[in-house]
Design a protein that fits this description.
AhpD-like, globular
Length: 325
């Protein structure tokens, strides 16, 4: 099947944003803008970020594949009107038919090499392998990080932002006063879905059992890995507000030998899960459960998935770090 130029541009963008978000640049947008409007591009970004979040949640929590596809696409038998009035109490409802996503692959496609998913070529056989694709360069020096953060404070967002007053109409109760951060103004582009996204991101920071310090530490670790400079600037500011010096903050880039076993287990879980859904091992999850208990592990997985999404949205859009940060 031949894909149209617009599709190929969207696939390439999706692949980079998913597997190598640190490589995304202005050139990727030049290609996208040949085929899509800014609103459509933002919609692509939000969809990709959302799927990145969902995949990490399912793999991180070890949720098994449902044989029925989780009722996705389920439908009633032909002739049954789902929109009709409710049946009488004594009338048996028609059973729903469910799709099954575990059917064998058609022989026609069993040996077809994907043109969309990135592959690792086996060095010995020269054929595509099932190895995990994870490409991140070693972390930059402290000096280079400082330069990158300063550059992010001067850059112009790649996508238009909604006016502050109009975006303010969408924020949830209890949202901080003052000028709105750029991520809120970006999500306000779509008033209906944006309102829910803004509330969700705000809730992930304001609620839950995880301590503010841990959230800020995890945000830094994940943003460093993704080279998400806007998110990194936010994490740095939160850590400073919690009393951390920059010397302490940059120790999060090290081997964590100065941290407790519980802290190391949580940092490792967040870093691995954010890197790729299948980078996190059962042993690493088991160690985290041993150190902090299943309830906090589930909350940490949830928070990590949110940050992986936030990093991709804000960095793809090239948001400028606010002056207060």
């Amino acid at each position: 099947m031949e894909h149209k130029p617009a599709q190929r541009a969207a696939y390439a963008f999706t692949r980079t944003l998913t597997y190598e978000p640190h490589r995304l640049g202005d050139a990727d947008f030049v290609e996208l803008r040949k085929h899509y409007t800014d609103k459509q591009i933002l919609e692509i970004i939000l969809a990709v970020a959302g799927y990145n979040s969902i995949n990490r949640w399912k793999e991180g929590a070890g949720i098994p594949q449902s044989s029925s596809g989780g009722n996705f696409g389920s439908r009633r038998p032909e002739g049954a009107n789902a929109g009709a009035e409710k049946l009488a109490d004594k009338t048996e409802r028609p059973a729903e038919k469910s799709h099954n996503y575990l059917t064998p692959t058609s022989p026609k496609y069993q040996n077809v090499i994907t043109k969309v998913v990135p592959l690792v070529i086996d060095a010995k056989s020269g054929k595509p392998s099932t190895q995990t694709v994870f490409r991140r360069a070693p972390l930059e020096s402290r000096g280079d990080v400082t330069k990158a953060l300063n550059a992010a404070r001067q850059r112009t967002p790649r996508l238009p932002l909604v006016e502050d007053a109009k975006a303010r109409e969408l924020v949830p109760e209890g949202f901080p006063e003052g000028a709105l951060p750029q991520w809120v103004r970006l999500l306000a582009t779509f008033p209906t879905s944006g309102k829910g996204r803004i509330a969700s991101i705000h809730s992930s920071e304001a609620r839950g059992d995880l301590k503010p310090l841990l959230k800020a530490q995890v945000s830094w670790i994940i943003a460093r890995q993704d080279r998400a400079w806007y998110a990194l600037g936010q994490a740095q500011q939160r850590l400073r507000e919690l009393g951390w010096s920059d010397d302490q903050i940059f120790k999060l880039d090290g081997d964590w030998s100065e941290f407790t076993p519980a802290e190391r287990a949580q940092f490792r879980l967040a870093r691995q899960l954010a890197a790729s859904p299948i980078m996190l091992t059962d042993a690493e999850t088991t160690e985290a459960v041993k150190q902090i208990g299943p309830r906090d592990v589930v909350q940490l997985i949830s928070y990590t998935t949110n940050r992986a999404s936030f990093n991709r949205i804000t960095e793809a859009a090239g948001l400028r770090i606010e002056k207060s940060l």
